[in-house]
Amino acid sequence: xxxxxxxxxxxxxxxxxxxxxxMIIPQNFLRTIERTGLGKHAxxxxxxxxxxxxxxxxxxxxxxxRRAQILIAGENFGCGSSREHAPWALTxxxxxxxxxxxxxxxxxxxxxxxGLLPIKLPQDIIDSLIKDAERxxxxxxxxDLENLEITRPDGEVIGFEIDPFRQHCLxxxxxxxxxxxxxxxxxxxxxKEQKIQQPWLYK
Amino acid sequence: xxxPRTLYDKIWDSHVVEExxxxxxxIYIDRHIIHEVTSPQAFEGLRTAGRSLRRxxxxxxxxxxxxxxxxxxxxxxxxxxxxxxLDALERNCKEFNVDYIPMMDARQGxxxxxxxxxxxxLPGTTLVxxxxxxxxxxxxxxxAFGIGTSEVEHVMATQTLILKRSKNLxxxxxGPLGSGVTAKDVALAVIGKIGTAGGTGSVIExxxxxxxxxxxxxxxxxxxxxxxxxxxxxxxxxxxxxYDYIKGKPKAPKEAEFEVAVKYWNSLxxxxxxxxxxxxxxxxxxxxxxxxxxxxxxxxxxxxxIIPDPMNFKGLDKKASIKRALDYMGLxxxxxxxDIKVDKVxxxxxxxxxxxxxxxxxxxxxxxxxxxxxxxxxxxxxxxxQAEHEGLDQIFIDAGFEWREPGCSMCLAMNADKxxxxxRCASTSNRNFEGRQGPKSRTHLVSPAMAAAAALRGYLTDIxxx
Lengths: 203, 466
Description:
Chain A is α/β, with parallel strands linked by helices. Chain A contains eight helices and eight strands; from the N terminus they run ββααβαβαβαβββααα. By secondary structure, chain B is α/β, with parallel strands linked by helices.
C-alpha cells in the first residue's frame, strides 16, 4: 500500500450529498480481476457524455482540477455498496484525500486499505474550504497525516482526527494482514475455546 | 453480575480474540461467503504474498452478480469480462479447495439467499461477505456485514477483522401491518424516518411485535435494507421461527447438537434492561405501502403522496440535491405518485427474491395480464424449484412475465438485464441510485405486491386500490 505522509494539492469541490459508490464507479467497470486501471472510469456517468466526450461542467474535467489530489464533498460520501473498486478508482485517478462532513462506514474503512485518506470535518468548516477550493489553481492545500493538520491556502491550520492505528498503518504503508498474522497464537487459542462452546461451527 | 447487554453486545463479546492498544478489537469471523466480483483480487493477494486460507471450511462460494438469467445461461457469454470473473471464481475455488456452488447447480443463487437456505447462516455467528447486503443474515441473529476486498483477504488469511465496536441503535416497530403493507414497506418507512445515514456507525436491532410476527423471509427483507439506512448490520433476535427455518438445512447442526445449539441461541437475545445508544419507535399502524421517488432510498413516500417541491426543503444543499434527483428522475413537483407511468418492472434481488415474494406476486397477477415488460428472477435455484412446484411459474408466464434463472440480475445490471436510459422501472430491489439499473435508468423501489400491481396497470399503483 502507498504511504501517506503529506500532500500538497488543489482541492476539487464536489458539494453533492450522498455520493454513492455507483456514482464513484458504475457497475459496468466492476467486471475486472485487477485492482488497477479504474481511474479513467471514476465518476463515469457524470464525467462523460454519451458519445464518450467529457462533460465540461464536471469539476474534475476543468483545467484547474484535473490533477487534484484532494476532493471536498457533501455528507455521507461513499454510501451504498462495499465495492473496493470505489477507492481503487479514486486513487487510480490520482486522488489521495477526500474531505467530507461524513462517510459511509464500509467506504471509510476501505479507503485506509488503499492509501486514500478520508477526513471528516464539520459542515461549516467544509463550507469555508469549498470557498477556498473554488479559487482553483491558486488555492493549494496541504494535508499532513503525521501531524493531523490541513493547511489552508491562506496559511490557516485546521486539525482533524483519525483513529491512531489507521493513521499508523497509512503513514507507514503497513499491511495489516501481516500484523494480524503475528497474533496467530491468540487466534488459535480463541478457536480452541470456541470449539468447546460451539462445536457445530467446527464441522 | 455483568451489566445488561444487547444482542449485538453479546455476539461482539463472544468474538473478541484480543483488545488492541489502539482501542480496536480483533474479532473472530465464523462464516465467509464469496462471489465472483469482490473476491478475485483477494485470492490474487494471497497468492502474491504466499499466504493460505486459515480455515477453508468456513467459506462458501457462489457466483451471482453477473451470471446470465436466461435459459441458455450455460453457453451464453454476456461479456468477456463477466466470463473472466466467473471463470476466476471457479479456478480460485479449485486451487484453494473452497466449497463452490457452480452456476448450473440447483442450489446456485444470490449469496444472501443461498447462505440461509444451506443452513450456513446461523444465530450468534459473525458472518461476512464482500457485499453490503450481507446485513440480510442478521435476520437470524447473526452479526453479518459487508466488507471490502482487502478485508475479504484479511478474513481468508486470518479468520479475523480489526474492528471498532459499533453503537447500538434500536428500531422498534409494533402492531399489526395494514392491508397491502409488507416487510419491504416497513424497511422503506424506517429509512424514510432515519435517513440513509441514520444508522452510520451503528448496528440496528429491530425489535417489536411487527418484526416478531414477520416470517423469516420478511425479516431478511428488513435486515437486508439496514445498510440503506447506513447501518453495516441489522439484527433480529432468534426465536422458534428462526430455529424452525434452520432445522434440517444441509449445513445446520443436527439432532442432539441442534438442541444444544438452540439452548445457546436462546441466550443471545438482548437483556430486558439493556441500554441502546439511540432508540426509534414506530407504530405499524402509521405505515402504508411505500414507493421511492428520488435517487436515494431515503427519498420515499406513501403511495398516496405527491412529488415534493425542492423549495419546501431546508438548506441550499438539500434543495439542490432534491432538484438534482427530480431532474434525473424526470419528475415534476406536485405529480401524484400514482400518475407516474413505468416502462419496466423487476421482481427479484436479495431483498425480495424469496419464495414468499414469488407467492405475493402470484396472488396479485393470477388470471390477469401485465401491460409492461416485466422480469421475475427467483433469488436461487431452490426458490425457482419451489415456485415451479407450486405452479407459480405458470401464473407468471400466463400473466406475461419473463420467468428467469436465479441471480442478482437487474438489481445492479452487471449482466445483460438492464433498464435503458430514461426508462422507468418499478423494482423490488434495494437501491435507486443514479445509474444503478443501467446508465440513466430511473428506479422506483417498491414491495413485490406493489411491483406486480404496477406491471398490471403500467403506472405506480396503490395495491390497496387494485
